[in-house]
């Protein structure tokens, strides 16, 4: 299998801003991303993601690793303690992690979503 490169140019090609799917506050958080799929691993992708302030439910149920490049937020897993996340922090979400995001300052993160085994 070949390595998959996500170039600096690709990272600049962000999608248009869209509202978060499950908002819990006003104003509603807006998000955008630049992403590349990794064809050898169905459901696997990596990219850059931005999100504006607001509170909302996490909708992604796959395993995900994130490195926060900028911003400030909190994540409270259902039944767990609130985690404060700032620029320079990393977090791993096991599959089926449910919880609430509280973005206080627009965040930018690099992410890796883990899908299935290679085809």
TrEMBL record:
This is DUF861 domain-containing protein. InterPro entries: RmlC-like_jellyroll, RmlC_Cupin_sf, UGlyAH_Cupin_dom. Coiled coil: none annotated. Gene3D superfamilies: Jelly Rolls. It comes from the Bacteria. Pfam families: Cupin_3. SUPFAM superfamilies: RmlC-like cupins. Residues 45-111 form the (S)-ureidoglycine aminohydrolase cupin domain.
């Amino acid at each position: 299998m070949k390595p998959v490169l996500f170039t600096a140019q690709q990272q600049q090609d962000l999608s248009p801003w869209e509202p978060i799917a499950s908002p819990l506050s006003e104003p509603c958080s807006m998000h955008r991303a630049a992403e590349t799929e990794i064809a050898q691993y169905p459901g696997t992708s990596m990219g850059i993601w931005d999100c504006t302030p607001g509170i909302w439910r996490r909708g992604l149920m796959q395993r995900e690793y994130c490195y926060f490049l900028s911003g400030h937020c909190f994540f409270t897993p259902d039944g767990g303690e609130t985690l404060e996340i700032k620029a320079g922090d990393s977090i791993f979400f096991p599959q089926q992690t449910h919880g609430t995001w509280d973005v206080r300052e627009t965040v930018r993160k690099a992410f890796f979503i883990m899908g299935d085994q290679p085809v």
